[in-house]
DNA sequence: CTGAAAGCGCTTACAG
DNA sequence: CTGAAAGCGCTTACAG
């Protein structure tokens, strides 16, 4: 292991602050932890001493004595480290950080590998963090359940496919897709297809089911479904080709992710279909690339940063023992109408 | 503050492991820390006990007793939280994580706000982490220097403009730009412009100076410089318009960032310049968008993940007190030739 | 509202 | 190679 060098901290200790303020260590501790029942006089003296001495409490000692880590982990369950470039992850991270700012809670970032899941559970259950935020890319991940079983407070981003009691926050993928489907129907489309995501991810299934519901409502067939196993432009392109060969007359496609929509647009262009005149295209996510696409993509926006924020306050709420927290939360989406549909 | 709930860890302690293995706590500690001078017999007994009991050491206690945090911080100095979506940051993070994996060192992510710099220095100098990795987006940031002064081991990603003794790792921006300039000269371009980055960022100046050197070598003028204050498509577009109005006859442009090159391409297309026939375009970074641009962008690739990895082993080396570490490091770039030049 | 004292779970000289 | 004991810097009942 890395034998991290000794790191002598020369700063003042609680003891010195107490002496400078003319109070006991207990009182200094109370002031630092913003506990009630400290006289204004004592509080002021302590604050002044802290300022004068440039005191910064030792977190390890606080954790050890207080049995509380003042840190939460953001665990990214990944099958390759490319997740980090994913706009979804970046957005969540932004939200988590925003929600944490101003609170004295540190964020520890962990990425799971295939092999070290045992270690991870041990570490996270070992009290090194107070709770866990997890974004699970494949819905079947057993980690959330294991952690919950081990008594670790956890909130998952994106509906997990396994684990009933686990609190999660997700975008309302079903209703987002339903709204997209209704919009296509309302604008006169009569042969509407969909490019769906992987079947083992809740996000994929929820969006597909929303679209299906929309078709059913309108009395339209819902046979034109092509699944892509990956959220990539190429996956979208292959699915689009498949759909076109099965039904050359299709006049609309709901693509369950903007990134796949890029591939679908490419194929439609290559086959000289005019967008939206011949084929209307609606995406999902509202990534940056949606607005710069040709033509600019009509899409269902999800607020990923809000997802991160919501996950964070849910977890902090759990930790604070707040009452009346919802078991899970669905965040609204909104249809952003541009030129492609 | 967030009063993070008590988190009773029910797991076994060192004490129990020692009892189960029939040795003293000291010996267990030595085994865990992989110290020499432990008999094979004792070692095996301890390992077995750890396994049987599912023991996971308490980090806070280790940190407190050992005066070592077993954690490093990745500090992102930001003026707005959009950094997180930046491919540069994502790449660095990926590299840091890759290099850390397998070592028992945690990564704590921190983002600085304008107002809390005092706190940050206090925290980081307070022994909560053993060292700091920092990606500083504006070169003038005083934080690296303050941390170094406070005795905190630090490695900066991207050459800082202030602070002499600070170890940094950067891509070789100067030589990358020089290679781009030479390529344009070699392919017969006679009126070569550049879109440079902000003057207060080392990355901007280094790439500009590399281009200048290339012009000087070829005996070509280096007057066609347009600075953009931001690395955005719009910034690149404005600079391109400026250049075109100053010199309608220009036949090449080296753009100091792919993201700005997108804007430059847009303007060139709008003015009906054929690329590369009328105007050759070379970018820098080799982002994803470079290969999907129209036409695919010839660009200087920098390996951002490698940057993150290198920063990390430099820091770990510092912490381990390794000898012969380079004061700073420049990573090679490479010209990726596509269709735009 | 305040202080003395015990204790959190480890590491590390020290002595053997 | 091993163990007994001190100590890391806090928090928290407990008693006042």
From TrEMBL, chains A, B:
Record keywords: DNA-binding included? yes
Q: Name one GO molecular function term.
A: transcription cis-regulatory region binding
- List each copy of the HTH lacI-type domain by range: 12-66
Out of the domains of life, which is the source?
Bacteria
What UniProt keywords apply to this chain's record, in alphabetical order? DNA-binding, Transcription, Transcription regulation
Q: Does the keyword Coiled coil apply?
A: no
Record's protein name: LacI family transcriptional regulator
Q: To which species is this protein native?
A: Umezawaea endophytica
């Amino acid at each position: 292991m890395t034998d991290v060098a000794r790191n002598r901290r020369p700063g003042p200790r609680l003891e010195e602050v107490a002496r400078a303020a003319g109070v006991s260590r207990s009182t200094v501790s109370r002031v630092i932890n913003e506990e009630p029942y400290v006289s204004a006089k004592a509080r002021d003296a302590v604050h002044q001493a802290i300022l004068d001495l440039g005191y910064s409490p030792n977190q390890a000692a606080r954790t050890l004595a207080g049995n509380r880590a003042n840190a939460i982990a953001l665990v990214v369950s990944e099958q390759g480290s490319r997740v980090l470039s994913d706009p979804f992850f970046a957005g969540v991270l932004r939200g988590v950080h925003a929600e944490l700012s101003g609170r004295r809670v540190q964020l520890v970032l962990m990425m799971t590998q295939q092999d070290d899941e045992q270690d991870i559970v041990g570490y996270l259950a070992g009290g090194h963090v107070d709770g866990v935020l997890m974004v699970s890319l494949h819905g079947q991940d057993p980690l959330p359940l294991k952690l919950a079983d081990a008594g670790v407070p956890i909130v998952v981003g994106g509906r997990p496919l396994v684990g009933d009691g686990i609190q999660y926050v997700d975008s309302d993928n079903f209703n987002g897709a339903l709204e997209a489907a209704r919009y296509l129907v309302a604008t006169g489309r009569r042969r509407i297809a969909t490019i769906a995501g992987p079947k083992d991810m809740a996000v994929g299934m929820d969006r597909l089911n929303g679209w299906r519901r929309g078709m059913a409502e309108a009395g339209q067939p819902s046979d034109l479904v092509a699944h892509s196993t990956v959220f990539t432009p190429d996956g979208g392109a292959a699915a689009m080709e498949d759909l076109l060969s099965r039904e050359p007359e299709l006049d609309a496609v709901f693509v369950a992710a903007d990134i796949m929509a890029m591939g679908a647009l490419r194929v439609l262009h290559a086959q000289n279909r005019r967008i939206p005149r011949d084929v209307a295209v609606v995406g999902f996510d509202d990534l940056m690339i949606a607005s710069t696409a040709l033509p600019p993509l009509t899409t269902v926006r999800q607020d990923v940063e809000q997802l991160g924020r919501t996950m964070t306050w849910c977890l902090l709420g759990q930790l604070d023992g707040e009452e009346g927290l919802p078991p899970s939360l669905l965040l609204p989406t909104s249809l952003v109408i541009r030129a492609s549909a």
